[in-house]
Amino acid sequence: MKKLTRRQFAVAAVLAFSVVSLPALAQTPAKPKVALVMKSLANEFFLNMETGAREHQKAHASQYDLIANGIKDEQDTANQIKIVEQMIVSKVSALVIAPADSKALVPVVKKAIDAGIIVVNIDNKLDDAALKEKGIAVPFVGPDNRKGAKLAGDYLGKQLKKGDKVAIIEGVSTTVNAQQRTLGFQDAMKEAGANVVSVQSGQWEIDQGNKVAAAILNAHPDVKALLAGNDNMALGAVAAIRASGKAGKVLLVGYDNINAIKPMLKDGRVLATVDQFASQQAVFGIETALKAVTEKKPQSALGGTVETKVSLITK
What we know:
Blueprint: H1 6-26, E1 33-40, H2 44-59, E2 65-71, H3 77-89, E3 94-97, H4 106-114, E4 118-122, H5 128-134, E5 140-143, H6 145-157, E6 165-170, H7 176-192, E7 195-201, H8 206-219, E8 225-228, H9 231-243, E9 251-253, H10 262-267, E10 272-275, H11 278-294, E11 305-308, E12 311-314
Parallel strand pairs: 1-2, 1-3, 3-4, 4-5, 5-11, 6-7, 6-8, 8-9
Antiparallel strand pairs: 10-12
Helix pairs in contact: 2-11, 3-4, 6-7, 8-9
């Protein structure tokens, strides 16, 4: 048998040490990657949500990495589905999603769960029947939208007389949060004895809210108040009320408490709005997801609702 030279022996020893060391290096745990997928970043509400999430990640940088994405407008459901598919390919550890459509996002959410990704739902609840049909459970972290809308509706109701005509500008009608806010407004108007003469979708957008408000004011010139499902649509309604010459004559409430609405609360163009604390919603969702990831809980062990707070905001 040929003897090894001193140099050959040293090289062999280094190689042997490297082979032994490689598994130890490979076992170093990577930080969880959390994907936050929001709705329209043209909406100040979701910009606030993203800011809150990024600040949380910065304060907990050693615990997880964050990938934040949003879509161009509230109806860009197809692109939101593509973003989720990209996150699946990227093999994120968890997905925290505010779905643009309560039903349309369920199939791709199931795809994410099947890929071993923990999914947490925020802001707009995924449809219960659609989840059941796919055989999946997804926890919802967010406010009671019906309760929040009733807060604004009750405050408005104190300014109305029985029989007064009012109208509701609804968000995207296929979303659970839009439906729940409309129900909350209707609950309050029923208690106040007001007559809801119209419910139309403003698609969560300023321009659409403006068009719907203008159409309602034209069709029902004696309407006394408008209830908008979010502040973007309320901004559009403010312009429509002014253009119709009814400033100060038609009351208006919104929902979200974005910065743009605050001067209008102050001068009375908007009577009230509802704060659902956008900057914290994503944080609560991320913390729920991280807990499941670190504790190695399967998606099937998750579910239920973590209710976050809502507050009435007035002048």
